[in-house]
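[Meeting: bench + compute handoff]

Bench side (C.D.) handed over the final construct sequence. Compute side (W.E.) agreed to return the predicted structure before the next meeting so the bench team could plan truncations. Sequence as handed over:
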Amino acid sequence: MYEDNNPRLENEVLEEIIMKVNFLSYINSDQNNTETDFENINFNVLTTDDNKIYLPAFTDLEELAKWGIPSNMDTITLNFDNYVEIILENENIEGLVINPFGDLYILSKEWLRELKDMKKDRLKVNEVRIEANSKILISEPKHLPTMMIETIKNCCDNLGNIKKAWLLEMITEKDKSWLLILDFEGDKNYIFSKISQAARNYLGNMYLDMLPYEDDFARNSVQNHKAFYTKNK
């Protein structure tokens, strides 16, 4: 019925699966279970004709309904990270099948492991390091990425410890990128990671480099430039 064919999905589909989508599935209902305590949840699985076991995931209620509505079942919402955690820790599960009764995608355990590493790489904090004697041009963006700016503003509000933020355009000998400079209090890696996650969908072909305002290069770069974000007092 299902084949572990490790399909080559388009980049857009992979992006949706690993970064954005929440999936639905059935679990055996138990009032003592919680959605985050995976060890105590009895998941419903699908078995192929050759007795391979897959964990099913559904993109919406319409797809879920194709499985029927079993008695004594509850629905649960999980994301990619949740499924990877469950599948990689269970030697009996071969992989993940998305929308098994529609246009299905099958992701083997090996493929899930690769996608997990891919996601980790995408979320790495990109803190720019300026090499000595580098030729760098810093300028005000000619065309402001308004959607990205609004998203970063919202993220700054949610974090609560960003004082100011500047967005500039940086051209080096190698490439062109956005340079985001942040004046903040708190853990730099955590803040940069959150900003990176918030902005990733709006970068297009550009990179987003980040520097703390306390850096000498950053301070010099924002002179005569207006911050696009200032924390409300």
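W.E. noted at the follow-up: The radius of gyration is 22 Å. C.D. will use this when planning the next construct.
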